[in-house]
Design goal:
Helix content is 20%, strand content 22%. With 122 residues, the protein is of the alpha+beta class. It has a 4-stranded antiparallel sheet, with helices on one face. A hairpin with an 8-residue loop joins β1 and β2 (34-42).
Length: 122
């Protein structure tokens, strides 16, 4: 970990790979698309953010990847604050699987199958 980069303002668990701290994304003066999300994903863990088109479920992923700017809050990867890093410096990859095309069950099976092919538990 680079000591010059800021770390979490509160203790991070050793097995926390991704942590969102009061993550907020606002567009203009309207209601926030993402409103103070707090989430910890353990190393090797996974989460699903299903929802209909336009509900904002992809926004946290775009924020983590650095494709959109965070209005408030922090994004940590393995305890390192990446909130202000450019997308290319984050070491993240985003893949959006449209379950409208594949269906929810097939999308989840596809994601779990990818994990097994990579030798990771599902």
């Amino acid at each position: 970990m680079d000591p010059a980069l800021p770390t979490s303002p509160r203790p991070v668990t050793a097995d926390s790979a991704v942590e969102l701290i009061a993550l907020t994304r606002k567009y203009g003066q309207g209601r926030p698309a993402v409103d103070a999300i707090n989430l910890r994903i353990k190393s090797g863990g996974h989460r699903c953010l299903p929802g209909p088109s336009g509900c904002g479920n992809n926004t946290p992923l775009r924020l983590i990847a650095g494709h959109e700017s965070v209005s408030e809050g922090d994004i940590l990867i393995e305890g390192r604050n990446i909130t202000d890093l450019p997308a290319a410096a984050r070491g993240t990859v985003t893949t959006i699987v449209p379950f409208a095309v594949m269906g929810v069950a097939l999308s989840l099976a596809w994601a779990l199958g990818r994990r097994q092919k990579q030798g990771r538990p599902s």
